[in-house]
Amino acid sequence: xxxLLHMDQKSSISSTRSxxxxxxxxxxxxxxxTTHYSSDIPGLTDFQTTVVNYALVGLTSPGSFASTEFDxxxxxxxxxxxLHSASKYVTLLLKLLCSKHYEVRLQxxxxxxxxxxxxDSCSLRDNSDGIEDANYESFLVLHSHLITMxxxxxxxxxxxVEVFNLLTCTSGKxxxxxxxxxxSLSCIEVLQLTSELRNASRRDEVxxxxxxxxxxxxxxxxxxxxxxxxxxxxxxxxxxxxxxEWLALLHHSARIDQSVESREVAATVIKQNxxxxxEDPTDILGIRVFTSWKVLVDILQDEDAVVRDxxxxxxxxxxxxxxxxxxxxxxxxxxxxxxLALELSIEAMVNIWWKKNRDAxxxxxxxWIEDDQDEKDKPASEERLFERGEINTYREEVTFQRLVGKHxxxxxxxxxxx
Length: 418
What we know:
By secondary structure, the chain is mainly alpha-helical. It is built from 20 helices and two strands. It has helices spanning 2-32, 44-60, 86-97, 102-119, 133-153, 157-170, 187-200, 204-215, 218-231, 236-253, 260-272, 274-277, 289-299, 305-312, 314-317, 329-332, 338-356, 358-377, 382-387, 397-412, and strands at 178-180, 183-185. Strands 1-2 form a two-stranded antiparallel ribbon. The longest helix is centred in the N-terminal third of the chain and has 31 residues, at 2-32.
């Protein structure tokens, strides 16, 4: 009886292996030849996505292709890992990303996002993990194709969102210049392309994805602009123009009439780049820095609790400029309630910029009161009037004006350093 059971199990394993081998061969053939079908065949798109899904599942399951004859010239028999056979992996992904079916491209991009999230592309050059430079070069090829999709090839909005989401999580791992077709792009040029694309797009989800990605470029752009200005070979305004235009877009995306997603991205970008956008350590931004502070105080009064909570974390980054709290309080408390964060942010701005640019600091505080009063005096539109509910009453103009007025009075008592 045991003998018969053992034979039955061996037969079942053999049948399963044969079936897997057959499916692998069929799938490989379909991946190799995706152009011999007419595009108007009913169900073709579903068929293509099924084929791709089977291939991607095989790549992420080390045992799926083990002990098979699945065309080792195209895929590694051991299954996918960014640590092994990266060039073959990239070859397959590049082929799938060139599919004429957006559903296929979208499926591959989503797979890549999950894969990079698990493997962390920063480990590609970590010699302790046994990564070879050849694997990193393969990754750069894939990154270059994503740049081309972002700014040239990809037109479908859902795919474009995923492309920029991917670039957001990998851009910090790839040194500049980047490659777009045959052109090398500096970080400033990439920032300009993102601004152009954001202005041209009519889809809010695309604009949010592009702006989120652009936030990862700010630290690189700031450093490169600093180097250019030190050379004194170009006018300051011309050098800073790309960042000025980007700051204007940031300010626009934080407005209350923009979507919650747009304001969340603006809050995240400010939080990620507080050292450069708020403190301006080398004083290259001039009065442009106060645009960032305006975005900060506006978002701290946003009607959406998630948006406020995101930006409230900025106060912890500014803690060394805050003197009204006991020393060390913010060192152990990383999150501050948004209303308190608003007052502490105004204090930090004054403490940072009173010595650097006293006139601009005072002018900014006065403009905040005037702008807030102008907004208060505007008649509410019918749509906005009936839309307002309990959550929409968070912003208190009088409270904000009192906070700003308080710091204006404190400024009048500060010593004037000549």
